């Protein structure tokens, strides 16, 4: 250290030791790199404040010139300006070399210029924001030595002052643009006397040798003139930095041909001054990585080692530099308080997050309230009204026009004042403006105005009711989406319970909202406000929530289903059904078609929630360990995370370059693993969606992944089509173990509850158990024995088992096979239950952590949540799809075969069942007067059973292959049958004579009897033919489709007939000339055919004006316009045939889940 500097320090040692507090002085010196942590500890160990100061000065005396400069700057920065003045004369002379300081990368020249100009040191913990610093430096360069203004503006605590100081910490900028130096003035909120003092101090600093005047200026005007002369003559080409400017009148005192950089919360402050102006807006957030970096520096930890609460703190404060720094400084003193400070943030207890620092405000609430206090009195109340806004919500101007009962222009003028003062943010999308608050501003307002919140919410509801009716909101209204999303929230917050119940229990509201935003948000609201809704009527609340949960996959699709028709499928005691029936009756009077499912009381819903988060097949879904979240993945290459109770989406990640085959939560729920056809395994942060690891060692697609059950030593197992299993330690970059033994693809793997064993099942037909520690094979089990009672052929066994999941108690195992889910009791190896609901292959099953529910995921794009108890108790009879129906006056009689091969006669109106006999049949039919039943089998044999005496008649004219369809003529004397052998037989069974109709080239799919002994038949060969069943002659031949003709019908006047095909189209033809009249299969927006798959049956109404089609579901069409009149969604799909009463008012079918539907037109 220079002798001059040393002597100056020794001379004023006593004054320094008496007055300074060492804590923050040392922070600055550590930040500059001139004091070590151990030296700081040594100072802190001294018992009194004066002794600590003495120890610090003793250390500085042993250091170099730069340490002296650092100490001097720290005194200035911490407000010891008088003490700093004592040391000013001793500041060592530093050459203007560009040699950089080894610690901070700043040249000695820069250090001296900034020190003399009173520019604050870098904060104790500093993280650069290069993009913003560069933007400020570019704007300063644009001044080019001429007078002008560069404004840095942003909300409280966003780091404006730090950025301003950092921008001038640049050698080339100072030397090239501001060789006259830099002068920093902390302005703040001032009155005129305060401003005069600031100007007097600045003039004194600029005229230290008092060559211009020996007295201070007496007023602001004199000070302004003095400043102008000093800047022009004594400090030309220097930069004046005005920090924290609040008022435009303050700037006028500095408006005297200077180059000025200023920081402010109000970007309109420069409106009153002249000259070029440049603006640099500062976003309110550091960004997640920068925020974590600051915290890691404060607590002296690696960023990767920070606890989970660190991420939550950054998320909660939206990366506010002020909050992150305040909490970081506090954590340095109290390193075990992560959870405490996070809770204070979450509970909006800003007063508890305070730390004495160089920042003007010790706590966040002070920094924010000062901005609000500076608003004009006439607009303060409007800012208070914003307390009801939610976080991350952009509010259209129209909403605030309704709230304040004002014109758009008036509202925008008020809001612009808030935006100018960084109290509100504006997102401009074309002509429309949307406004939002920073999360901290929301927290501050709700805390400050907590006693008024209920009234403020009531105010917005009252205003809404003046302008709108809930269900009449139109999607083209600017504010429509806001009300759909937040009307219930405002009602609940206003404690308007009656209005909330009326809204949530309204089918009109449900329809309007789900059509626009889907069902998940509504289900969330039913859960969120359950305590209020249950007060009104617990049963009604459950009715609506169940309706939404079980129809969610339909309500999210396009075209949007008729919600009234869906409501009519609910139980008759349900409020949803009662409202739907009321609406349906009113609409039926206006010509609308609605259907009642008259036998629905026999059906039990086993699923609790059905969601459709993916746009393609869902390959896997899993619960988080706490049961609150579900993760799913699939063919659309995404990973989705949503709430288990409501289906509300939390994360959507484009996870891989190819289909994602499996996903798994870690035991502590921090991570989600995914694996894919792209051969990669990835680990994601489950809360943020951030990618943590990528593993790339498998040589084929990776089919499964599973974490250990203990988080003590977290391992991940993966299985691949390369026949190998691999174990990964998340702390290592490479695979820990590879397990050899399977001879085909490994489909699934699961750790045992104690993590000692790993089970794997493979396409080689084995289940293997591996020792996790040694990676050796322990046992190999043949899986086929679990399926000995299966209905499927034994040769299919190697592809049946997709995956399995154990219940927590280990007593049951669940297995997915085709589109069914089986539940097995391990001890007895007996099947406990099976549940059907998916429309296609099931890929994954998983129990919830407590075993009360389980998830299934399927090719049908849905994920179903089932209640285990209901599934185990369910004993529903499932019918095969080959049924026949006879309509007699008010009676509907159904002949069907159930899943245990019993032939049964069901009274459709009463539900009474008569069991007739056991039979192995491929099709069956009833005679028109219910005297006989007939059935055909897979071998081509046909039998007739006389119901009165159980006599059996067998046909000697046997088909060569499976019989697909049989039907009695009206006189019951003749039985007609069609088969895979491409032949139709007309058997007069009483005379034992048979006529053969030959002409089709492939399987005859079906036929329909017409008047005048005519028969219409259709085949896999794409043709439709008309026959005379008395002569056996073919009378007409139509080539209708490229592919298989699945169904046909002819209108009652015999002028039109319809055909459907495997090409997923339905066509209406002119009988006489074969002309195509209509094509009834336009494609929907998603590209899926309107019938939900193949159209398998058709039927004209007696008047020929309506056509009924069956396929994935049932549709009614207007024949004249070709437009759909109604759609009925069955629980299952793949309807084979639909039976229609002569008056076209009753319809009967069975879906692929074995559920019988008897539908009746509502009148």
Automatic annotation (TrEMBL):
InterPro entries in the record: APAF1_C, APAF1_CARD_dom, Apaf_helical, CARD, DEATH-like_dom_sf, NB-ARC, P-loop_NTPase, Quinoprotein_ADH-like_sf
A GO term from the CC aspect: cytosol
Keyword presence, Repeat: yes
GO terms for MF: ADP binding
Domain (CARD): residue spans on this chain: 1-90
SUPFAM superfamilies per the UniProt record, alphabetical: DEATH domain, P-loop containing nucleoside triphosphate hydrolases, Quinoprotein alcohol dehydrogenase-like, WD40 repeat-like
GO annotation terms (biological process): apoptotic process; regulation of apoptotic process; system development
WD repeat windows: 611-652, 653-694, 695-738, 739-780, 835-867, 956-988, 997-1037, 1038-1079
UniProtKB keywords: Apoptosis, Calcium, Repeat, WD repeat
PANTHER family: APOPTOTIC PROTEASE-ACTIVATING FACTOR 1
Protein name according to UniProt: Apoptotic peptidase activating factor 1
Recorded name of the encoding gene: APAF1
